[in-house]
Specification:
353 residues, alpha/beta, TIM Barrel, 14 helices, globular, binds iron/sulfur cluster
Length: 353
């Protein structure tokens, strides 16, 4: 057994023990705090990406006062990581203030951005907020990225943001790329660009069937393209720190080749998301609809929502309820795949590889 495979198996054992213990705590009603909470900070955005999953308008976003109150609750409850996503979070005038306050409360912060608004001053103020990881989206080489993002300056702004953040802050920089038929052929060239930018992590995902992408089949990879992507990731590992995004928490026969440790969908067990207007759901990529909402931060405390909600993720009954999962040999490695991908029945890795 190779060192990597040994480490993977050890972690798998740890994960199983953790899940068993979590099951017992769940039965007893003694649920620990999540490790990570994501804040879906706004639906406003300066770009109009063809694959955007973050759709829908809100009359009201959480106020600074509300989010400060939530950060206090998260810190007291023992949450470790606070991640900010959107929309474009930098469109919130109080964004830096929120980061700084989260840091003051001892939370490890990270955020995802398109990089457009990061100039020298913003990079300097972000550096003072002690952010652990900043994720910038780049979906291809210059022309491809600009056409996907429908903005001729979006690529140069994103690259410039990486350079500024690297020179002014100690934050780790990751680049998120959503792979689709429109950009799969530019990945090798993009890899060269990202290596020259000396980023810390390249996070690759595929399009999920939510938001604008829902009714656009041209954005989804064919089986051949998906396998090409997997092989590209395996080949690239020698040159760059690369991961496949979380919408494939299990990669079947490729899992050990790509991941150092096994993953699972963490919602309701390790993480959840606070929505733009305070409704709490499992994951920022899930539609913010009644079907996925577990409570609202204005009417209950975060701890109350976390402890009483999320049952469907915790009882893991999906692998018994789904006929295909029920007879699947991979069921206790995969646990039924990604809940967002279930939106259009595209969650099963066996359909791709
Ligand atoms: S059948 Fe279910 S458990 Fe098996 S790989 Fe597919 S989604 Fe995962
Ligand atoms: S629902 Fe999917 S994208 Fe969301 S946390 Fe789970 S695996 Fe990840």
């Amino acid at each position: 057994m190779s060192c990597m495979s040994f480490y993977y198996s050890l972690f798998k054992l740890k994960q199983e023990l953790f899940l068993k213990n979590f099951g017992i705590l769940f039965q007893l009603g003694k649920i620990n705090s999540p490790t990570s909470v994501v804040w879906d900070s706004t639906r406003r955005c300066n770009l109009d990406c063809i694959h955007c999953g973050s759709q829908g308008n809100y009359e009201k976003e959480l106020s600074l006062e509300e989010i400060i109150n939530i950060l206090g609750q998260l810190s007291l409850f023992g949450v470790k990581n606070f991640q900010i996503t959107g929309g474009e979070p930098l469109l919130r005038a109080d964004f830096i203030e929120v980061l700084a306050y989260a840091n003051e409360k001892g939370l490890i912060t990270s955020f995802a951005t398109n990089g457009y608004y990061i100039d020298e001053n913003k990079a300097k103020s972000i550096s003072k907020a002690n952010v652990s990881l900043i994720q910038i989206s780049i979906d291809g080489t210059k022309d491809i990225h600009n056409s996907i993002r429908k903005n001729p300056k979006s690529f140069s702004k994103a690259v410039n943001a990486i350079k500024l953040l690297k020179s002014h802050s100690d934050s780790k920089i990751s680049v998120a790329t959503t792979v689709m038929p429109q950009n799969i052929n530019s990945l090798a060239q993009l890899r060269g660009i990202l290596i020259s930018l000396d980023i810390d992590l390249w996070n690759i995902g595929t399009v999920m069937s939510v938001g604008k992408a829902k009714n656009n089949p041209s954005l989804f990879l064919s089986k051949e393209q998906f396998n090409r992507l997997i092989n590209f990731i395996i080949d690239s590992k020698k040159e760059i720190n690369i991961e496949i995004g979380e919408n494939f928490p299990y990669l079947g026969k490729f899992d050990k080749k790509i991941r150092r440790t096994p993953k699972m969908c963490p919602i309701g067990i390790l993480s959840c998301c606070i929505g733009v207007d305070g409704h709490v759901r499992g994951c920022p990529d899930q539609p913010d609809t009644d079907l996925y909402r577990e409570g609202r931060i204005q009417t209950e405390t975060f701890e109350e929502i976390w402890k009483k909600g999320f049952k469907r993720y915790r009882n893991r009954r999906i692998i018994e309820e789904d006929k295909k999962c029920f007879i699947c040999n991979h069921r206790t490695d995969c646990w039924g795949g990604c809940w967002v991908m279930r939106e259009n029945n595209s969650q099963c890795i066996l359909d791709y590889i």
